[in-house]
Amino acid sequence: NFYKSGISGLHPSCTTKIGKSSNSGVVDSNLKLFNYKNIYVNGSSVFPSNGYTNPTWTIMTLSLRLSDKLTKLFK
Fold it and tell me: In which band, very low, low, confident or very high, does the pLDDT at 3 lie, cut at 50, 70 and 90?
């Protein structure tokens, strides 16, 4: 069992997950909260499910993607 062997660890995540609509998630694919203007969420909380690897690179990639979109949107 992974949990008993100490090989696996869980990072807090999935509390504001990405979804196709407000029925399936909290943010859309652009990380914008459903039903709100100009409120974005980023971090492991947007993951739709938890994985076994460190989430840092995925969070960094999502951050870069979001910063590019926001720079273009608010320029």
Answer: low
3-state secondary structure of 41: coil
* Three-class secondary structure of residue 59 per DSSP: helix
Q: Please tell me the pTM assigned to this model.
A: 0.79
Tell me the Cα Rg of the chain: 14
40 pairs with which residues across the strands? Answer: 32
| Residues 1-34: b if buried by 16+ CB within 10 A, e if exposed | eeeeeeeeeebebbebbbbeeeeebbbeeebbbe
Q: Which residue has the tokens 């910063």?
A: 67
